[in-house]
Design brief:
Layout: H1 7-25, H2 27-34, E1 36-47, E2 57-66, E3 70-79, E4 84-96, E5 101-102, H3 107-115
Antiparallel strand pairs: 1-4, 2-3, 3-4, 4-5
Length: 120
């Protein structure tokens, strides 16, 4: 309406970035096979400047921390001119959907998470 992207859309972009990260690291395949994988505990976004419509957005995503049962993703959203428009942080918990409880991150995925910190 005002020529800029609504704040809800930022969270949709962040969700797409998060899901893409899971695909790159193999976490989505593990969920499909064994029903274990990450679940979103929290997310937050700091809006720096508007994204304009129509336009494009580029998102860089990387690991911000890895603990025993949780890890963090940091997202940076850039406009078509390369200006930083928002920063977001997710906290995810590794979860066993069969037992309905959190679980330690499996070593092969801990290694995959640490190897995939770059932009997406």
């Amino acid at each position: 309406m005002f020529g800029h992207v609504n704040n809800v859309s930022y969270f949709k972009f962040i969700q797409a970035s998060r899901v893409n990260h899971w695909e790159v690291t193999g976490l989505d395949a593990e969920f499909k096979q064994k029903r274990i994988g990450p679940v979103l505990l929290s997310t937050r976004c700091r809006f720096i400047m508007p994204l304009h419509y129509p336009g494009s957005v580029k998102i860089h995503c990387g690991i911000s921390f890895i603990k025993n049962t949780s890890f963090g993703l940091h997202h940076e959203l850039y406009n078509a001119h390369g200006s930083l428009c928002a920063e977001a942080d997710d906290v995810l918990v590794y979860y066993d959907f069969n037992q309905n409880e959190k679980m330690p991150i499996l070593e092969q995925y801990r290694a995959a998470l640490m190897q995939k910190p770059g932009p997406q």
